[in-house]
Amino acid sequence: MAVTFPNGSARGPQNGEVRQDAVAAGFARLPESYAIPERAPSLAEARAYCERLARSHYENFSVASWFLPRNLHQHFFSVYSYCRISDDLGDEVGDEQLSLALLDRWERELAATYEKLGNPAAEGSRHPVFIALAETIRECQIPQHEFSDLLVAFRQDQTVTRYPKFDDVLGYCHYSANPVGHLVLYVCGYRDAERQLLSDYTCTALQLANFWQDVAVDWQKNRVYLPLEDLARFGVSESDIAERRFSSEFRELMRFEVARARQWFERGLPLVGMVNRELALDLELFSRGGLAILDAIEKQDYNVLAQRPVVSKGRKMMLLLRALAGKVRA
To answer: What Cα–Cα distance (Å) separates residue 110 from each residue in 10, 36, 37?
Structure first.
């Protein structure tokens, strides 16, 4: 409703007011603990929040952390919590405009965190993730763009649903996947471009494996990550995906995409020999997990339309045992 101000002018809600309403409406659709609290928690409380969130949302988090030095666990809890909530702001709200408003607010909280690190008198963020993350940013000297790049991808998910060329898919992975690898390297003490590039290959490969695993799932979200140029090349239409119509053409399309993803995994392999043993075991475990997804796709004759390929619990245990054996031999 319009209101009249002393000078006689009338106006409705301003952009900032409307945006704040969207933020509140968006947070209302997410777990209550995601909202920005009225009172900033202590550092100890913020650390506990991140550890709780990481352990409750990521079934393999505690397993992966076995291979990492204990003094790095809290940093990984904090980084994971940032990534987890960022992803949910974009994917779990169910309204594009609300998600965009939330992602904008989340980036302002990130900016406020960096501002306070440079100026202790600044207000900073009250959210427990950013209070805990500030410690990680300071100790590991992580640039702001490594966090904000992720938000570019989550915003893109709200507005872009098709990718004409494979290079466009790679452009998405540059923001959606590669920053995660950079963050891991920073936490483990590596800052050089050579390791970051090798990490990019592995993270992009993992993202591609997830895309090819979730073709039918993503279709339900009106997202197609298979490059349109490849669909045309192999004679596959979007209606084939919509109707889950498996054909020899679709099989050859997926055979091509799986082989290409394997090539990206191979490009990233040298990184394992360029990091400390603990991180190398972690990288090996995640790479083997991604390759196992590709194996599962092949095992069901590339038909990702009829059933989502999954890695069996037995297969996961075998991967873990191999990694543990490597740790014992080290």
So the answer is: 35, 13, 15
Q: Rounded to two decimals, what is the model's pTM?
A: 0.88
* CA distance linking residue 154 with residue 172, whole number of Å: 10
Q: Read off φ and ψ for residue 9, nearest 5 degrees.
A: -80, 155
d(CA 274, CA 233): 38
User: Strands 3-4, 10-11: parallel, antiparallel or unpaired by DSSP?
Assistant: antiparallel
Tokens (6 digits) for 329: 């031999």
Contacts of 216 (CB under 8 A, 6+ apart): 241, 244, 304, 305, 308
What is the rounded distance in angstroms from the CA atom of residue 156 to the CA atom of residue 164?
15
Dihedral of alpha carbons 121, 117, 76, 170, sign: positive
C-alpha distances (whole Å) from 174 to each of 100, 121, 179 are 20, 35, 7
Residue pair 81/2 in contact (Cβ under 8 Å)? The answer is no
Model confidence over 41-56: pLDDT tens digits? 999 999 999 999 988 8
12: number of Cβ within 10 Å:
9
195 Cβ contact partners less than 8 Å away, ≥ 6 residues apart: 185, 271, 274, 275
**Three-state SS at 287:** helix
CA distance 328 to 330: 6
Using CA atoms, how far apart are residues 29 and 246, in angstroms rounded to an integer? Answer: 36
Return d(Cα 133, Cα 83) in angstroms, integer: 11
- Tokens standing for residue 221: 């979200």
Q: Which residue has the tokens 């095992």?
A: 299
The span from the CA of 142 to the CA of 76, in Å, is 13
How do residues 257-279 score in pLDDT, each as one tens digit? 999 999 999 999 999 999 998 89
